[in-house]
Automatic annotation (TrEMBL):
Keywords: Membrane, Phosphoprotein, TPR repeat, Transmembrane, Transmembrane helix
GO molecular function: phosphorelay sensor kinase activity
Catalytic activity: ATP + protein L-histidine = ADP + protein N-phospho-L-histidine
Record keyword Transmembrane present: yes
Span of domain Response regulatory: 613-727
Annotated protein name in UniProt: histidine kinase
TPR repeats: 72-105
Naturally occurring in which organism (per UniProt): Flavobacterium frigoritolerans
Modified sites of kind 4-aspartylphosphate: D662
Length: 739
């Protein structure tokens, strides 16, 4: 009998459920509009808690009746509440939701107001004036469509105010002239304060002190009388700026005090706390609404199924399947009990293995980082002292011993960089960048940088570039250069008295993607077919004898891994005594607009003949000597201290144009020293001069207040370019150096 009753209830729901739902009365649009007006009234009275609660009710009702106009109005009021208690990101979010629903209507006045509100948010709260003025101008378009001169007047005021705030008085002039021309016919309580304040700001700008003072006093007078006190706040601030400008500091300070008193009265802490609670409920409703939409859709589908006679068959079939599932589930439970013990043991073993692998990976990374740092530090001294000897003693320029020393140092540095590079690729730490570059310049730069290697084996390098390849392409030029550099240097090592060709051909275009085939071809010793599968493995060197010094065997491994990041692969053709051809294809984007911007934004040489004072903080005596020589050679003044404490002491007594800071120092490292310098309020640019890998320390360097990082050993021209740039930036001159 119970089963029969359940079936009867189901049939009753099928037959009468729809009529029961239909009897639910929906709120009228007039009622919803009154609710929204009530929420707006609470907002104007600064009762944010009640305004949010009532606007939430209006929004729920508007969503039920699917009235886009009322939905937009409700979201607009909600956003205005968040605006009032300074939660600007939430305010922008709800204003944009309001605008998305308003754009589905023909209500230009509503679109105007929401665009105006977004303009207010971006200009006066987020300080993103360009974006804010775009919303204002959009608002102005809707106002003109409606021929609503009052709204046109209001938007002109806002645009004028925004331009005045960023000092663009010339751009503001057309809008400023408009509000002055139409003020007498359009002024009211909501605009009279701002109108007088803007005139005060303008005449302060043109140094008409009498008019400026009169307008500011008039603005404050009307602000005290009116109910809208936020404009009075701005009037006090701008008047204080004007008084400060003309030297009346006492009056300026008194106006700041008045501003703070009004602000405290408006933004009562208890109101804000209640509003935050109401706001939380509002956000919760947003999530509930999303779930509600899914439930409504599900209900419609269920209702359709109930009306269908097939439901009975489905019910019977479902019951049968359910019984089968229960039997199957029982058998599975029994089976799982038997196997769970084995799985648990296996899982524990896997977890241990995983932890051991992760620990090994961390230790490997730490080891490589430590070794690279420990090698780069003495290498800096070796390379620096070698260069010093060659510069100071010209008679040693042809010394084979010094040349061998310099070559060995370069080779050791290349080894360190290769090991770091392969480790980064294996740990997926390499991310391709999108940079605009000239492919011809990049290839020729590689050719020139390897000229010393080509001269060693009496080789020639030839470059052949397809004329159909665009001048400027977009892609990761640094990784591309690294691929080509490894292949060309490899070809030069295994070729004597021959030629190496760098060939680039455009093979196809798909949209913006230009697929370019590159070939590195040499006339060298060649590679045996049996060895061709091995050469891309780590630390493998083919054809090496005891008289050669052919490198680490990492170059081609790095090439293959980097090409994988580009979504490409590499192939080779070679026979013993017939040379080798490596071939790969990379798709670079081509964008003519970026090409124009590159031509228009050619970098300006930032080198300077001015003599700057440089402070070097370095504990290693050899590195002190090398760095001092490099700096003084460029006619800069150089002071060297041994540790962070000495740096803090000398900065209290002297001023410097730039500080070169070592990171790994005893007692107090470079990060901590920089933090203490910044706490003293010292703005001097600080450049980290370190042997650590840049990626390892960038985040901590930025948080400590370091302006840039240079890895030892370094090219002196790069050091001075960065120094000059940072000094120029400190003096408020635009500078753009890619380091």
């Amino acid at each position: 009998m119970p089963k029969v009753r359940i079936v009867l209830i189901l049939f009753w729901m099928i037959c009468f459920g729809e009529s029961a739902i239909a009897k639910t009365e929906l709120p009228s649009e007039q009622e919803i509009s009154k609710t929204a007006d009530k929420a707006l009234r609470y907002l104007k009275e600064s009762d944010f808690e009640k305004s949010l609660i009532v606007s939430r009710v209006a929004l729920q009702q508007a969503l039920i009746v699917k009235n886009n106009n009322l939905i937009a109005v409700s979201y607009n009021i909600i956003a205005a509440n968040y605006n009032e208690f300074s939660e600007f990101d939430k305010a922008i979010y709800y204003y944009k939701k309001a605008l998305s629903f308003a754009n589905r209507t023909t209500n230009n006045i509503l679109k105007n107001r929401i665009n105006n509100n977004l303009g207010n948010m971006y200009c006066f709260e987020k300080k993103q004036y360009k974006k804010g003025i775009e919303f204002y101008k959009k608002s102005l378009e809707y106002s003109k469509k409606e021929k609503d001169s009052a709204l046109v007047y209001l938007i002109n005021i806002n645009i004028t105010w925004a331009y005045f705030d960023i000092g663009e008085f010339k751009l503001a002039l057309p809008y400023f002239n408009y509000i002055n021309k139409h003020h007498k016919e359009r002024f009211n309580e909501s605009t009279i304060v701002v109108f007088n304040m803007l005139n005060g700001m303008y005449y302060s700008h043109v140094n008409d002190k009498t008019k400026a003072n009169a307008y500011f006093i008039e603005a404050i007078k009307h602000g005290k009388i009116g109910t809208e006190k936020s404009d009075l706040l701005y009037s006090y601030i701008e008047y204080s700026k004007f008084l400060n400008k003309i030297g009346d500091y006492k009056q300026a300070y008194e106006n700041i005090i008045k501003h703070n008193a009004v602000k405290e009265n408006i933004y009562n802490e208890e109101k804000l706390k209640k509003a935050e609670r109401a706001g939380f409920n509002l956000e919760l409703d947003e999530y509930k609404r999303q779930i509600g939409k899914i439930e409504i859709e599900k209900g419609v589908q269920d209702l359709s199924l109930r009306k269908s006679r097939i439901i009975v068959l489905l019910f019977i079939l479902t019951s049968c399947i359910f019984l089968i599932l229960i039997v199957t589930l029982y058998k599975n439970v029994v089976f799982k009990k038997r196997t769970n013990a084995k799985l648990l043991f296996t899982n524990e073993e896997l977890i241990k293995a995983k932890e051991q692998a992760e620990e090994a990976s961390v230790l490997k990374t730490q080891f490589i980082s430590t070794i690279s740092h420990e090698l780069r530090t003495p290498l800096y001294g070796v390379v620096g002292i070698t260069n010093m000897l060659l510069e100071e003693h010209k008679e040693l320029a042809k010394s084979q011993h010094l040349s061998s020393l310099k070559f060995s140092a370069r080779y050791l540095l290349s080894l360190v960089n290769d090991i770091l590079q392969i480790n980064k690729i294996e740990e997926n730490k390499v991310v391709l960048e999108s940079l605009t570059f000239n492919i011809s310049d990049e290839i020729n730069m590689i050719k020139n940088s390897l000229s010393f290697l080509s001269q060693k084996n009496n080789n020639q390098i030839a470059v052949i570039i397809d004329s159909d390849i665009p001048e400027y392409l977009i892609g990761d030029k640094l990784r591309f250069a690294q691929i080509l550099m490894n292949l060309v240097s490899n070809a030069l090592k295994f070729t004597k008295n021959g030629e190496v060709f760098i060939i680039a051909d455009l093979i196809k275009i798909v949209g913006k993607a230009h697929f370019i085939e590159f070939q590195v071809k040499d006339t060298g010793m060649g590679i045996a077919v049996i060895d061709q599968d091995k050469i891309f493995e780590k630390f493998v060197q083919v054809g090496r004898n005891e008289e050669d010094y052919q490198g680490t065997g990492l170059g081609l491994t790095i090439v293959k891994r980097l090409l994988g990041l580009f979504g490409s692969s590499i192939s080779l053709e070679s026979n013993i005594g017939e040379g080798t051809v490596f071939t790969f294809t990379i798709a670079f984007d081509y964008d003519p607009e970026k090409t124009k911007s590159i031509i228009n934004d050619i970098q300006v040489d930032l080198t300077s003949n001015q003599k700057f004072k440089v402070l070097v903080v370095e504990d290693n005596l050899i590195n002190q000597l090398v760095t001092r020589k490099i700096i003084e050679k460029n006619n800069y003044s150089c002071t060297v201290v041994d540790d962070g404490y000495a740096a803090l002491e000398i900065l209290d007594m002297e001023s410097f144009d730039v500080v070169l800071m070592d990171i790994n120092m005893p007692m107090m490292n470079g990060f901590e020293t920089t933090r203490k310098i910044r706490l003293k309020g010292i703005k001097t640019p600080i450049v980290a001069l370190t042997a650590f890998d840049k990626d390892e320390i960038t985040e901590e360097a930025i948080s400590a207040g370091i302006n840039d990082i240079i890895i030892k050993p370094f090219e002196s021209i790069k050091l001075f370019k960065i120094i000059n740039c940072l000094i120029v930036e400190t003096k408020n001159v635009d500078c753009d150096v890619n380091v």
